[in-house]
Amino acid sequence: MKFERSAGILLHPTSLPSKYGIGDLGKDAFYFIDFLAAAKQTIWQVFPLGPTGYGDSPYQCFSAFAGNPLLISPDLLAEEGLLSQHDLENIPHSDPNKIDFGQVINYKKELLVKAFENYKHKNENGFNDFCEINKNWLDDFALFMAVKEYHNGILWTEWSEDIAFRKKGAVEAWTKKLEEKIFFQKFIQYKFFMQWGAVKDYANSKGIKIMGDLPIFIAYDSSDLWANKDLFTVDEHGKLETVAGVPPDYFSETGQLWGNPLYKWDVMKKHHFRWWKDRFKQMYELVDIVRIDHFRGFDAFWEIPGDAPTAQTGKWVDAPGRELFKEIKKELGDVPIVAEDLGVITESVEELRDMFEFPGMKILQFGFGPNGDNGFLPHNHVKNCVVYSGSHDNDTTKGFFENERRMNSGIYEWTQKYLNYYGEDIVFAVIKAAYASVANTTVIPLQDMLNLGTEARMNFPGKLGGNWTWRFTWEQITEDLAAVFSEMVDMYDRNPKKVKKA
After folding, report:
1. Would you state the torsion angle of the CA atoms of residues 114, 118, 123, 128, taken in this order, to the nearest 10 degrees?
2. Where in the sequence numbering do the catalytic residues fall?
3. I want to staple 170 with a disulfide (CB 3.0 to 4.6 A). Which of 26, 162, 200, 373 is the partner?
4. Do 69 and 113 contact (CB within 8 A), yes or no?
5. Per-residue pLDDT tens over the stretch 72-108
6. What is the pTM of this model?
């Protein structure tokens, strides 16, 4: 599917302003869409929207299909009469620019339980329809979360053996035993999908498309693995036979051991990739464009023994990406997909990407300096790609340059010469270079639009704790910011609504 020339912003909903300690799907999400529209942005890119587990990472979720309950707006629940104003008092104090996940998780859970108590005696057709439409993943997910809570949150392999390994009659017995807990899990999923659906509809009504994110691998501690062990590389005891990662490189002499289970592609092929088709269908219910994280894993993946202490002992194994995407196209048509093709990319990965005309990604930060990868620089861009100043795994662009100047690396001075810019706001000069690029699509992290430093960095790969916590406040959005970017959209012809002259 061809991408129109356009511009967008990268911001996860958790980073929205909110008095409840974390961004949610209430009024501020709609205000942000109004800001996007005023700035003539036509893409809002988000991270995975699933329920986060260990480390609060949206890339390690309890389900590849479910939504994150932390995003549910208490104010919207109150408007429905499911919470009282009294329920919304005594909000824990929080830093407006930072999420305290431990505090937020406990507080939000209390509110959701109260809302459920006020809801559970209703018999809504909407809820019943939602459960029926989504039963292929919702029944397993709700049971998984209910049993996990019953066992105080421990890993599923440590549960009672009958339900951990879904022995005969166990699913039925535990479903009956935890009936109300399962009802609660389905209720919060219903509320998430209703609230997110309203946000997406509003964005679409303003001409804005949502770009979502699909992590290639699932989490070990997930309902996906627990309910479908035959599709993943675990043995009958749940022990990992092989895991995902990447081999040793310039950045790490032992490689990266991610620990995610790999796919039994031979089994998936026998089922005509049904699990993947369902996953993509679900994604396109939530978003308009899908960015696939670690796209190269669909061409070949680094297979590491399950008991290996590092990623050094892995090997490359071919994946059936061509067959998979042909099946996806056959079922869903020419759906818009962006391939995250960063890192060491082989010719065969590029061939897979180009065979289906998926745009790849260009990160400007990676191109700067005499030793940078000049394939990321604007003069080497192609039309069919998405250009970013930086990504969620990078430092902010301001933080990047401040760090390089501290180290006297010469990258800042090199970039000045490259951009022919010697003023005080080099971040804006980088953004202008992204807008001026021939690339059809440019997406800028909000942190860079606001010219924020390292304090606003979203994620530091390999660092445990403290990630995914940044939030903005409306005070940081200057009065002229939308006008400045609106002008740039017009200047660099990134307004798809604008009719071009013949």
Report:
1. -20
2. 293, 340, 393
3. 162
4. no
5. 999 999 999 999 999 999 899 999 999 999 999 999 9
6. 0.96
